[in-house]
């Protein structure tokens, strides 16, 4: 697909100030400025990402005082607590972290993860009745609950208090819960609205530990070191694809260190089945190797297994479950490939595709667990807001993914007349719909997309951080760029452009091509994956290219390698 290259502009006075004050290269200062870090203090915090000094107080979050206070009372009274988590990656990891902490401080706690297919998303009456019969008097929902007004009301009538820990968009009427911690509350002064469900669970742990200290719970002994829970929290934060900025960046940066050295049986087993070598873990390894195995449990079977794996003290139990998750992940990959092929055939059969501003697909029998991934793949290919719906006996469940310029939940809200239920955030959503409403929904959604988007919004943009000459690129530059990690949503790995580069060599392989490039007397290696048929880099050609800078280690030596994202023939 054609892409627009946009060289981002930074305020040169800000770049000079950051470079001088922080003693960093101008290029790194430019990247910081382009990420909105325009003063030395905010840039310094970004680079340090200290848990002690850079995390805001949990009690800036509306509802935290009540939520932590209710948990303290439950612990003092030895009440049975249930943590009810969502089945996705940040719901299960957030649940595991909170359950583990409550157990560490002496709580009597169980957990409940609904089955994606059999029970669906959020709280449900049958599950609450089951918990009531077990004697549960406090339910803490993690990554769900904010849209469960009737279910929370039912819990209250059964004598169960509900504390909601959720990051999804607020409905018009908030549930009558004992406490709600959600940074999107209009009365919430917490400065960061981008936390995942796992991050919010960790913040509840911070708040609860502070309240327990006040109550003298720990006596003369030291309070628990909550940094040990960051391995689990980081899995959920990175894999849920929330922005790696602000609080998420602090948690993930320290959490990756905890994850690399974790001795938690569940984490050790998960890394083992993913065949990751011992030592440092990158955000990419979490996002593409560990996270999908956790997500596969909720998509293909029961997310309950993830919590069991991450909370068990048995290496044997953890490894058995990790192997099951690995198998579920292979099933998920096969199912995803099949559904994607069928979805693309629907797209290809649409003669009006080039005129459409959105893509809405539906079919009987698709597995609901892979719809979000399929929707993401279609967005990557066609760059349009996409909804993919699986129908079964007249009822449809769908996942939606969006592009810049189209707020998905607001778009779904404009189609609420045709939907049974919907939720999510700016770039992703979920919905339920009756099959007879599908044609009307498709038409309305396309109208909303046309009203919201301009034709140029349908062309993907590559935002380039700087234009470089090959003479400026070396291993020292890579070391400076590494100070900006971890990269991810909201903090993308820097993109660079170089023009008028000569292709010296080209060697194709099954997944792409390796190149030798020359500019101004300097030669560099490069690699490109997912090779397009019209890829213009032939030996002797002059090209402009957009790329990321990586380090290639081979036989004990290191060299710079360019990872090409896009290229075109030089004018």
Quickly list its features.
19 helices, alpha/beta, single chain, 18 strands, five-stranded mixed beta sheet, 571 residues, five-stranded parallel beta sheet
Short account of what is shown:
The protein has 571 residues and is α/β, with parallel strands linked by helices. It has 19 helices and 18 strands.
Question: In whole angstroms, how far apart are the ends?
Answer: 20 Å
State which percent range the strand residues make up.
15-25%
Main sheet strand line-up: 3-2-4-5-6
Query: Which class of secondary structure composition applies to the elements?
Result: alpha/beta
Average pLDDT taken over every residue: 93
Provide the helix percentage.
Answer: 40-55%
Summed up, the helix count is 19
How many strand segments?
A: 18
Gyration radius (Cα, Å) is 25 Å
The major sheet is characterized as: 5 strands, parallel
- Global outline: globular
Low-confidence stretches: none
Topology overview:
Layout (H helix, E strand, L loop, with lengths): L3 E4 L4 H11 L3 H9 L5 H9 L2 H4 L9 H13 L3 E6 L3 H16 L3 E5 L12 H9 L2 E7 L6 H9 L3 E5 L13 E3 L15 H18 L15 H10 L6 H15 L4 H9 L9 H18 L3 H8 L3 H34 L10 E6 L6 H12 L3 E7 L2 E7 L6 H6 L7 E4 L3 E7 L3 H15 L8 E4 L1 E2 L7 H8 L13 E14 L2 E8 L2 E8 L12 E13 L2 E13 L2
Parallel strand pairs: 1-12, 2-3, 2-4, 4-5, 5-6, 7-8, 13-14, 16-18
Antiparallel strand pairs: 8-9, 9-11, 10-11, 14-15, 14-17, 15-16, 17-18
Helix pairs in contact: 1-2, 5-9, 6-9, 6-10, 6-14, 9-10, 10-11, 10-13, 12-15, 13-15, 14-15, 15-16
């Amino acid at each position: 697909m054609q892409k627009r290259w946009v060289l981002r502009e930074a305020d040169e006075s800000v770049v000079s100030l950051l470079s001088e004050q922080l003693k960093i290269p101008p290029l790194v200062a430019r990247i910081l400025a382009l990420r909105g870090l325009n003063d030395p203090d905010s840039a310094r915090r970004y680079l340090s990402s200290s848990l002690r000094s850079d995390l805001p107080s949990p009690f800036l979050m509306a509802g935290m005082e009540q939520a932590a206070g209710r948990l303290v009372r439950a612990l003092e009274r030895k009440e049975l607590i249930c943590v009810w988590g969502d089945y996705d990656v940040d719901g299960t990891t957030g649940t595991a972290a909170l359950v583990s902490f409550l157990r560490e401080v002496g709580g009597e706690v169980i957990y409940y993860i609904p089955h994606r297919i059999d029970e669906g998303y959020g709280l449900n009456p049958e599950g609450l009745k089951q918990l009531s019969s077990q004697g549960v008097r406090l339910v803490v929902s993690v990554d769900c609950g904010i849209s469960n007004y009737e279910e929370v009301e039912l819990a209250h009538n059964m004598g169960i208090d509900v504390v909601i820990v959720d990051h999804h968009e607020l409905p018009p009427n908030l549930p009558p819960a004992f406490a709600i911690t959600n940074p999107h509350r209009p009365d919430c002064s917490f400065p960061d609205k981008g936390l995942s469900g796992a991050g919010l669970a960790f913040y509840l742990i911070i708040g609860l530990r502070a309240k327990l200290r006040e109550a003298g719970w720990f006596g003369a002994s030291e309070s628990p070191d909550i940094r040990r829970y960051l391995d689990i929290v980081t899995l959920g934060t990175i894999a849920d694809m929330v922005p790696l900025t602000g609080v998420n960046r602090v948690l993930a940066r320290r959490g990756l260190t905890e994850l690399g050295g974790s001795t938690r049986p569940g984490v050790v087993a998960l890394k083992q089945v993913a065949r990751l070598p011992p030592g440092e873990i990158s955000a990419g390894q979490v996002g593409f190797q560990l996270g999908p195995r956790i997500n596969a449990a909720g998509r293909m079977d029961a997310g309950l297994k993830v919590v069991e794996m991450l909370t068990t003290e048995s290496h044997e139990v953890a490894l058995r479950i990790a192997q099951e998750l690995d198998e579920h992940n292979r099933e998920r990959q096969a199912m995803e490939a099949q559904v994607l092929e069928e979805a693309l055939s629907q797209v290809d059969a649409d003669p009006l595709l080039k005129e459409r501003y959105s893509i809405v697909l539906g079919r009987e029998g698709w597995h609901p667990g892979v719809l979000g991934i399929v929707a993401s793949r279609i967005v990557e290919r066609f760059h349009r807001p996409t909804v993919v719906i699986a129908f079964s006996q007249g009822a449809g469940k769908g996942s939606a993914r969006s592009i810049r310029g189209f707020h998905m939940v607001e778009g779904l809200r404009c189609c609420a007349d045709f939907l049974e239920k919907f939720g999510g955030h700016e770039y992703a959503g979920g919905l339920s719909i009756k099959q007879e409403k599908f044609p009307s929904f498709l038409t309305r959604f396309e109208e909303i997309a046309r009203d919201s988007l301009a034709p140029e919004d349908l062309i993907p943009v590559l935002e380039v951080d700087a234009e470089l000459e090959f003479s400026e690129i070396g291993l020292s530059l890579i070391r400076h760029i590494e100070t900006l990690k971890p990269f991810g949503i909201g903090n993308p790995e820097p993109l660079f452009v170089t023009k008028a580069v000569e292709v010296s060599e080209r060697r194709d392989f099954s997944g792409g091509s390796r190149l030798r490039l020359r500019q101004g007397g300097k030669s560099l290696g490069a690699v490109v994956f997912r090779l397009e048929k019209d890829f213009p880099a032939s030996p002797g050609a002059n090209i402009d290219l957009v790329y990321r800078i990586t380090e290639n280690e081979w036989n004990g030596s290191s060299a710079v390698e360019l990872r090409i994202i896009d290229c075109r023939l030089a004018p």
